[in-house]
Design goal:
- The protein is of the alpha/beta class.
- A six-stranded mixed beta sheet has the order 32-34-31-35-33-36, sandwiched between helices.
- The chain is elongated, with a radius of gyration of 30 Å.
Length: 752
């Protein structure tokens, strides 16, 4: 039996090129017992080498960006999108915005660099830095629009680019083409575009051979770019550059790509600083001041072996960084990174042409562009198209026949959240066999379908109690604690009752004491934060070791009998309102298989973080007759529970059912939660399923939800007002999705 306790914690700060390699390599070959966390400001990281191609329209935004979420999922790493506010090396912890601090055993920094706005007065106020690229792209669109508008009106537009390195050169070529492509600009009547390339040096591409320098100079001049050599910029003013020689250069916009720098926080904690202002590391990429801290890419300078701040070095460092992080945490000798003396540089000059330099070797033309394009696309594909995970079954030969084993293997990719619930058919079969032990003050049946149990109190009030418990679907205990708490509270809110108090039940993976304590701390901080938002008190609980992180709560509420909503109190003619989109099951399954985009999961998580408290209050205020929360059995399964004790049916307006972004895409790919197949057995209750079974929204009816919304049945004449109130209280996707009808067959559903 393999037992893998978590004993150490590696934290990666930054989503740069080196850390891409670390995550992929750790995904291919994990380190048993090592937990990994990636902290990054942006979840989508741009590949700098593809920026020129993107500016001229050859690469889409999606193509030039790498989504870190699937990569982190592939590596089994926790992904935290946040800014680092403080790094504490004495106690090995990281402080973040609005989150518990993160302890670590080993740390790696791959935070890139950016042009130093402090080097030139007014840069941050009156000029645009080429890095970080995501911020540059947002403002670049404004520059391009302004240029297009001005030229369409017959006015000249002047763009100044400060710097003489590869980034500035590529930007000069690309910006000219991009602006010329602006719609609405008549070439006969257009104002002139003037691009200035301003550099303090007496040549472009310092460090490259003379042939490449001369070619680039001639090509820029041929295309009308005016180069100002030996002209250091003293300051940026609005619409002008003031040079150190006193001359001024008028411009409509300015971009700078000079003087790379780092933020101060890495050095405020005592990390060694190199002479050029970066994190100083040994050839092992270990910092010279702290052996448990590593750094790579543009953020680092190797002692006695400095290299240009170029992506090619960051990419090559990734392999040795991953290996040395693995070796350090397992107590083995580290390897040296040996930077190449000569590197191949491919520089885009626009029009699907590029130059290539290596030492004294130089070549230019379309073939070099095709080479660059091939290399760039191969790099992007490497981190975007990841190997697919398969379930490994440990079954002795002969125990199952091939058909049964195949079926079990297909079912073995178990989802978490509500996707891991026991199927409703199995649950019903077992509950029907249990003896009925009745008490006069217990108002609920043991096998009843209501969301919570009801106990009559001597003072006339009803004690409403619910219990829920789910497996973690994220590597983030803090986030999971908040979502699981909201999920547990939903059963109480579905009955129109305010949550009063709760008992917590936590299952923690086997881990070294320090890490186990941290997981429990983050989990309970998330839980208590959610409880505080809901005005509910934590009054106790229990914890135990488990195969994976699990959490649930027993929730109490008190209410007058006449105010309680039940599932079965439906009325013919009632409208049905769904307060949240569907699709969490398929999206979490896709996330598990590292096939979900970060924006899909971000939107899903934000929905899960919102309590159903307000929706419950709104439903009660608008005279709801019945209500339930949509969880593991999907929309159709929970609607059938509402109809079970009534001689009624329902009509569902399929195309009005809201879905999370990406859910239809993943369902269309056949990616479903593990409970989906069992839920789909309810399709037999749809009278006209043959007419809709090929509709793209049909599968969402069976999708199990975690921390899902409420399904409310209320008088039709109050539905619109209720919907308006729900939207006003943050339920933007709430929709009227059907009505309760008479039915010849109990519980029959008609799609429309």
């Amino acid at each position: 039996m393999k037992i893998r306790p978590i004993v150490k914690h590696l934290v990666l700060i930054g989503g740069g090129h080196s850390h891409l390699a670390v995550l992929r390599r750790f995904g291919m070959h994990s380190v048993p017992g090592l937990a990994v966390t990636l902290i990054t400001r942006e979840v989508v990281t741009p590949y700098s080498g593809s920026l020129p191609a993107h500016l001229v329209g050859l690469y889409s935004s999606d193509l030039m960006h790498i989504d870190l979420r699937p990569l982190a999922q592939f590596a089994g790493a926790r992904l935290i999108q946040s800014e680092v506010t403080k790094l504490n090396l004495e106690d090995r912890s990281i402080e973040l915005d609005h989150r518990p601090d993160i302890p670590f055993d080993c740390l790696s920094l791959n935070i890139g660099s950016r042009p130093d706005g402090a080097l030139i007065m007014g840069a941050s106020d009156h000029a645009l830095a080429v890095k970080p690229i995501d911020r540059f792209l947002k403002q670049w669109e404004s520059i391009k629009q302004q240029a297009g508008t001005a030229r369409a009106a017959g006015r000249d537009y002047r763009l100044a680019i400060v710097g003489g390195g590869p980034a500035s050169v590529e930007l000069a070529f690309a910006s000219q083409i991009a602006i010329d492509q602006c719609e609405g600009t008549s070439k006969q009547k257009a104002g002139r575009l003037q691009i200035y390339l301003v550099t303090a040096g007496d040549q472009l591409l310092t460090g490259h051979n003379a042939r490449s320098q001369e070619f680039v100079r001639q090509e820029l001049e041929h295309r009308g770019v005016e180069i100002r050599f030996g002209r250091p910029v003293d300051r940026f003013d609005k619409n002008r550059l003031v040079l150190t020689d006193g001359n001024e250069l008028e411009c409509d916009a300015a971009i700078y790509a000079t003087g790379a720098s780092l933020p101060e926080w890495p050095f405020q904690c005592g990390l060694a600083k190199s002479a050029d202002g970066f994190i100083e590391v040994y050839p092992t990429l270990q910092t010279t001041s702290h052996d448990f801290v590593f750094a790579a890419g543009d953020a680092a300078t190797i002692r006695n072996e400095p290299r240009p701040k170029s992506g090619v070095y960051a990419v090559r460092q990734g392999k040795i960084l991953a290996e040395n992080l693995r070796r350090f945490v397992t107590g083995r000798p580290l390897k040296r990174y040996l930077p190449q003396q000569k590197t191949l540089a491919l520089i885009s000059v626009g029009n699907k042409s590029a130059i290539a330099t290596r030492g004294e070797w130089f070549y230019q033309g379309g073939s070099m562009w095709r080479l660059k394009d091939t290399i760039d696309r191969r790099f992007l594909k490497k981190y975007s198209e990841l190997p697919q995970m398969t379930a490994q079954l440990d079954i002795a030969p002969g125990l199952l026949d091939q058909q049964a084993e195949t079926k079990l293997r297909n079912h073995a990719m178990r989802c978490a959240g509500c996707g891991a619930k026991v199927a409703s058919s199995v649950l019903e079969e077992v509950l029907d066999e249990l003896p009925e032990l009745r008490r006069d003050d217990v108002l609920s049946e043991s096998g009843g379908a209501e969301d919570a149990s009801r106990i009559q109190l001597p003072d006339g009030r009803i004690l409403v109690q619910s219990l829920d418990f789910i497996k973690a679907f994220t590597h983030d205990p803090f986030l999971f604690g908040k979502i699981a708490t909201n999920h547990s509270l939903s059963d109480i809110y579905a009955m129109g009752v305010q949550a009063h108090s709760a008992l917590a039940l936590a299952g923690l993976p086997f881990a070294e004491r320090k890490y186990s304590r941290q997981q429990l701390r983050e989990l309970m901080l998330g839980c208590t934060e959610a409880l505080e938002e809901n005005g509910c008190s934590l009054i106790g609980g229990h914890s135990a070791e488990a195969e994976q992180l699990q959490f649930g709560m027993a929730v109490n509420g008190f209410a007058a009998p006449e105010t309680i909503l039940t599932k079965s109190n439906l009325k013919i003619g009632d409208a049905l309102i769904l307060t949240r989109p569907l699709g969490s099951g398929t999206l979490l399954a896709a996330d598990m298989r590292h096939q979900a985009r970060h924006e899909w999961i971000d939107a899903l998580m934000q929905s899960m973080l919102n309590s159903n408290r307000k929706a419950s209050e709104v439903s009660v205020a608008h005279g709801a007759h019945a209500c339930t929360d949509i969880t593991g059995f999907g929309l159709l399964g929970h609607l059938l529970e509402m109809l079970a004790d009534n001689d009624m049916g329902a009509t569902l307006l399929l195309e009005r059912i809201p879905t999370f972004a990406g859910a239809i895409t993943t369902l269309g790919r056949g990616i479903v939660s593990s409970l989906h197949t069992d839920n789909q057995l309810n399709a037999a209750r749809i009278s006209n399923q043959a007419d809709f079974q090929n509709h793209e929204l049909f599968p969402v009816l069976f999708d199990p939800q975690t921390a899902g919304g409420l399904l409310i049945s209320l008088p039709r004449f109050r539905a619109e007002a209720c919907l308006k109130a729900l939207v006003a209280n943050g339920h933007d996707h709430a929709a009227i999705i059907g009505e309760i009808t008479e039915a010849e067959e109990v519980g029959s559903i008609i799609l429309s």
